Amino acid sequence: MEQQLEDLQKQANKELAEVSDASALEAWRVLYIGRKGKLPELLRGVKDLGDEEKRVIGKAANILKRTLEEAYSVKQESFIASAPNKLMKALPAGRQVQANEASVGHLHPITLTIERVQNIFAAMGFIIADGPEVEEARYNFDALNIPSDHPARGEGDTFMIDPKSVSGEQDVVLRTQTSPMQIRSVETMRLTPPFYVIAPGRVYLREKVDATHESTFYQFEGLGIGEDITIADFKGVIAAFFSTFFQKDVTVRLRPSYFPFVEPGFEVDMSCVFCAQKGCRVCKYTGWIEVMGAGMVHPNVLKNMNIDPTKYQGFAFGGAIDRLTMIRHGINDIRMFWSGDIRFLRQFSNCHSGPRAGIHVDAGSSPA
Ligand SMILES: [Zn+2]
Questions:
Q1: In this structure, is residue 315 part of a structural domain?
Q2: Tell me, what's the pLDDT at 164?
Q3: Taking a C-beta distance cutoff of 8 angstroms, is the pair 186, 218 a contact?
Q4: Distance 77 CA to ligand 1 centre (A)
């Protein structure tokens, strides 16, 4: 019987190595470790053995069972991490869409993520705010406690707009972050604490474009202000968000960091949703994935919102929509989003953004 177990292991490993898609993997699982599979069938024979043999074979069979299950989940994980790319390779290259071929459009993966983010936060009581991409420097920098000599304000990082072409007085930029929405939302909506705002949108940086950097990308900004809001409230909100977004039980961890508009500031990591923190390629074998920057709103920023920092406090966070989309769908090149490649986009025709929720507010327009 020991020989039988050994043969089974060899055969199962050989076949698993040849598995190249999810349906073949499922067939393999059913054949070897499924309820009526080869291994359980072999295990049923153990009860007829003598005591000593039963102990030895039983132990070996259990080890084999765990090994095969582990091999199965590793393989499954590799499909999750690289699903869209695998699919793309499977599609015939250069297939033309015929003019008479009726085709129905669907939302872009980035739009799907924006809606998903909005819906989850709206369900927790956040107001959804929209604002301009061409922004006054005072909202983009000054009101956020970023002084005029800060390196991030340089032309090396920021797309500057000729002030003469717009208002003529103010410095105008393509917003480099969604954070100006913090001040804008409070001003435009005349919000008084307690309040919660979520503001997703497009931002621009003079980045050198590569697989993980784009000059045009998307962020979502969050803000929650009240009388006794603490970091614990932030942790709770954000763990609930990621758990809902990935449909997994997610825990978050905070690491100290610096952003001018918060004090204290932190980087936010979430527990890896692909490997239950055992370590995998997506989390670079650390069990954690870096997902956003956050902090408690700086007193100077509260003052710029006309909110009394001695009475109120709160949290602010900023996450990357593109990165969330890449993690969720296993996309390894940010440039795909702007490629216009219909073979890439069609893979998202069946994705959805969750139940709709929330109130949308237009928080002002570009200087003109
Ligand atoms: Zn992992």
A1: yes
A2: 73
A3: no
A4: 9
- Is residue 99 scored above 80 in pLDDT? no
CATH of the domain at 340: 3.30.930.10
Same domain for 60 and 201, yes or no, is no
Same structural domain, 83 and 128? no
Give 271 Cα–ligand 1 centroid separation in angstroms: 8
When mean pLDDT is compared across 81-85, 316-320, 350-354, the lowest value belongs to 81-85
- Whether residue 192 lies inside any domain: the answer is yes
- Ligand 1 centre to CA of 275 (Å) is 4
Residues 237 and 135 in one domain: yes
Q: List pLDDT tens digits, range 121-165.
A: 999 999 999 999 999 888 999 888 888 888 777 777 889 888 777
Overall number of domains in the chain? 2
Distance 246 CA to ligand 1 centre (A): 13
* Residue 195 CA, ligand 1 centroid: distance in Å: 35
pLDDT of residue 361: 84
pLDDT of residue 82: 55
Residue where a domain terminates, one of 42, 60, 90? 90
The answer to whether residues 182 and 262 touch, using CB atoms and an 8 Å cutoff, is no
Q: ∠ CA 202-140-207 to the nearest 5 degrees?
A: 55
For residue 314, the CA-to-ligand 1 centroid distance in Å is: 31
Residue type, 229: I
Chain segment 60-86, per-residue pLDDT in tens: 888 888 888 888 877 777 766 555 544
Domain boundary among 90, 123, 145: 90
pTM of the predicted model as reported, rounded to 2 decimal places: 0.70
CA–centroid distance, 81 to ligand 1, in Å, is: 10
Q: DSSP secondary structure string, 44-104? A: HGGGGS-HHHHHHHHHHHHHHHHHHHHHHHHHHHHHHHHHHHHHHHHSPTTPPPPTTS---
Domain check: are 199 and 337 in the same one?
A: yes
Answer whether residue 141 is part of any domain. Answer: yes
pLDDT band at 368 (very low <50, low <70, confident <90, very high): low
Contacts for 366 with CB less than 8 Å, ≥ 6 apart: 132, 133, 134, 135, 166
